Amino acid sequence: MPDVSYLTAEGAKRLQEELVYLKGPAREALAARLRAAIQMGDLSENADYTAAKEEQGFLEGRIQELEAILSHTIIIDDMKKDTSQVNIGDHVTIQEEDFPEETYHLVGPKEADPTKGRISHESPIGKALLGRRVGDVVSAETPGGSIQLKITRIE
């Protein structure tokens, strides 16, 4: 079975919009560039043609990647909410030692952005939190070393 992607509704919409753009305006612009380069003649020494063909490869690869992701997506906003334990899609408030509490949204790796409070369920912290309950203290191995986190709230 292909890999399942966990996305928020917002994340899925963003990827769908990117796909529509790539399959429409981006493809059309690239096709026009290719036509113009072909009309210049000798393709063996035509840098514009070579660059456009390379770009076409990247564009088609990204289209295939997005189609694969979107065809095997689970929208985490639609998942049944059980806040008795940490699951994908939950907002989890944690506290490390005497530091202030921090709240993270547990998302799939395609949407993870720790600077915006979104961590992947596949990250060391995400893995440590999954299935745990309020009051649990979990240990996570991060690049900076082992940390202890107390779960204070699950929403």
From TrEMBL:
Coiled coil: none annotated. Pfam families: GreA_GreB, GreA_GreB_N. Residues 6-73 form the Transcription elongation factor GreA/GreB N-terminal domain. One of its GO terms (molecular function) is translation elongation factor activity. Signal peptide: none annotated. Necessary for efficient RNA polymerase transcription elongation past template-encoded arresting sites. The arresting sites in DNA have the property of trapping a certain fraction of elongating RNA polymerases that pass through, resulting in locked ternary complexes. Cleavage of the nascent transcript by cleavage factors such as GreA or GreB allows the resumption of elongation from the new 3'terminus. GreA releases sequences of 2 to 3 nucleotides. This is Transcription elongation factor GreA. It comes from Levilinea saccharolytica. The gene is greA.
